[in-house]
């Protein structure tokens, strides 16, 4: 047993000490152990000191080379791992896109950039002055008026006549709202039925006719527009500076329908605000872009939906300059100018809510309040009368 060679002995020790493994870590510690042993052997050898240091030098260079190759081995290993991971990701992506193709799910239209597609959700709602956003509902709307030669004079008469000849049950009509609009006309609204299908001959026999009426185009406000531009120049700038990634159709709609309506805000400054009118698809495109570039300015863009209320009589739909009604106070609803109100110490009373027959706490707010039920109803009507392309 004494004749056991050093190499055999070492192999036995290796077998005992080291769990066989081919990881680079175990290779490294094995190698280090061998180097240490070799260095000891060299130091104990009966050779000259200069030979010893020469051999130790060679050993340490061998060790350095081994380390380097080990690192490159690890990098190769990691690169291989990375390549495998990438291949997995690629396969997963292919699966996802195959699924998207078969279910025709929300693959964003090609003309929208990724960021725009991500933001396109916001444009499904309309931002109203109270700061909230409301989802416009698609409603079918018709306005019914007496024919020119009809004896019907008031909206009530028109309504009574219509109710006599048109049986909602017979035609499967689901009316959400019937309102008087104008002197002798009434408006029907329905979320569930297409009201243009009401039989014309029945109306005709009763002396009534459907008044053709298109919905209004949506309006947008542009903040910080150079004030030295004419409406035509505003339109030109919007079109040439903002539709670079729009589809031909959206660009065409912008050319055809975009109108710079009026300017508002301070008159004496370099920049002011504009209200523009656009097609529903152009509204979507511009709101998703978030900024509208005009000349050197990046302008904020928002929905602009306003209910006009007269400062004189508080009624909706006209300005005080066109007012033909009596003065009515915006605070107490009595017959005086709001600015001259002597009832400011009392709870307010809303002139419009009183007029619409509300009572009690429901009317205890100023006419200007943006939570006023009469105002909200009017705002809702305005939104449903605007074409958001639903
Ligand atoms: Zn008025
Ligand atoms: Zn008053
Ligand atoms: Zn009110």
From TrEMBL:
Per the record, which residues fall in region Disordered?
1-25
Q: Name one GO molecular function term.
A: zinc ion binding
Which positions fall inside the CCHC-type domain? 309-325
- Name the UniProt key words of this record, in alphabetical order: Metal-binding, Zinc, Zinc-finger
| Superkingdom as given in the UniProt entry | Eukaryota
Residues that span the membrane, as ranges: none
UniProt-recorded name of the protein? CCHC-type domain-containing protein
Higher taxonomy: Eukaryota, Metazoa, Ecdysozoa, Arthropoda, Hexapoda
